[in-house]
Amino acid sequence: MTRSSPRGKSPGRRSPGRSPHRTRGTPTPTRPRTPKSTPKKETSNRSPSPGRSPSRAKSPSRAKSPSRGRSPGRSPGSAKKGKVASTVHLGRIVNQDITTATLNSKTPCRPRVLTVLIYFWKVNLVLSLALYFSVSLQRNLLFLHKVVYPLPTSWYTDLEYIFGTEVLSDYNVENVELDHLRGYSIERSGGEKGDIIFFHGNAATRALSWRVNHIKLLAENTGCKVWAFDLSGYGDSGGYPTEAIVTQDAVNIYDYVVSKGGKKKKVYVYGHSLGAAIGAKLVKARGAGIKGLVLDSPFVNGTQAAVNHFSTLTMRYTIPFAGWLIRSGMVDKFSTDEIIAESNVDVLVIQGARDMEIPVNVAGGAVLEEGVRRLRKEGAAKGRGGLEVVLFEGAGHENVHEQQEFGKVVSKFLKGAGKKMKLHMPKFNKA
C-alpha cells in the first residue's frame, strides 16, 4: 500500500525545487538567495479523506494564486506558480497587443478620413436645415445685433470718449434720442450744405472707433451735418431688428431730421454694407424728399449675399441643395437692386476691390450694376435716377473711407445729385 505524504501529496509528484534523490534524513541543501525571493509555501496538515485517492490530493502547486495580476518575481507562490503567473501575465500582454493590432487593422487611415468627412457633411446639413427653418437664427446671423462693442453701453453717450476733445472743439456734436433709438449728430462748424443720414452695417454700434472716424470724415469732406443712429436691437437702442422694423426706424429718423430743418436744405442717405440696404429701403419709402443715395460696400440683395458669403462656403460645396435652402428660406431679403432700378433718386456705389465679405464680382457693385441695367431694360427707364459705380483698388470692406479720393468722390456726387443726373453705368471708375 502506498503511503501518503503528510503534506497530502502523491509520492509520484515532487515538490518544485527538491532533488529527486533526497531522502527524509538527508539535509536540505542551501539555495542561493535571489534578489526577488519567494515566500515559503504554506503547508497543509490535513490528510486526504478516506474515500479520496492520495494522488488526487490537492497540492500547493495547484492552489489558486493569491494575485493574478502580479509580476512573476512578486508572486507569493512557488517557482512553478510564478511560471504560471508569468504565463498569465504574458498572456494578458499578448492579448492586449493582439487586440490593439486588431483595432488598428479595422480602422486604417482611409476609413478614418471618410468618417471625418461624413461627420463634416452632417454638420453642414444640419446648419443648412437650421437656416431654412429657423427665422431667429437667420436674423441673428444677418444683423449680428448681439455683438455689442464697445462695452459698457453707457459710453455711447460720452461724446468726449467717442470723438475726443480735439474733434469736439472743431465740430458741433450732440446726443439724439428718438423714441427707443439712440444716436448723435456731428457737424463741422459753419457747415450748412445739407444733412446726411448715416446707417452703419451689422454688428457693433455707432461708437465703434472706425465708424466714428468714418462719420467724422463725411462731415469734414462734405460740409454736411451727419446723423448716426443705432437702429432697433443695436447698442443702447431698444427693440429687435427685422427688415420691417429697421425700415420703419429709418423712416422715423428721416421724418425727425426733416422736422429739425432738414427740409430747407438737402437730405442725403449714406449706408454701409447692411446699412446700404436699409438706406435703399428708406429711398423707396421717402424717395421724393431724398436728393441722393450713397451705397458703401453694398450687396445686391440679402439672399444672394447670404449664399455667396464666406461663412456659407462649406455648406454650398458639401450640400448640393444648400444654396436653394438659404435662398428659399430667407425672410428678410433686402432687395437693393430692385429698389434702385425703380427709384428716381441718383445713386453712387463705392466699393473696395479687396472686399472679401461682399466680393465685387459675386454679390457687390459689379453684380448690382448689371442687375440694375437688366431691370431697367425690362421696364421703363424714363424718370429713373442716375447710377455711378466707383471702385477703390486698395480698399477692403471697412476702409473705403480711408482712401485718398474718398472725400473727393463723395463730395462731387452730392453736388451733382438731384440735378437731373444722367443715367450712366460705365465700367468701374478706378479711384
UniProtKB/TrEMBL annotation:
GO terms for biological process: monoacylglycerol catabolic process; phosphatidylserine catabolic process. InterPro entries: AB_hydrolase_1, AB_hydrolase_fold. It comes from Triparma verrucosa. Residues 1-88 are annotated as: Disordered. The chain crosses the membrane at residues 113-135. Residues 46-58, 68-79 have a biased composition (Low complexity). This is AB hydrolase-1 domain-containing protein. Residues 10-24 have a biased composition (Basic residues). Residues 196-301 form the AB hydrolase-1 domain. Keywords: Membrane, Transmembrane, Transmembrane helix.
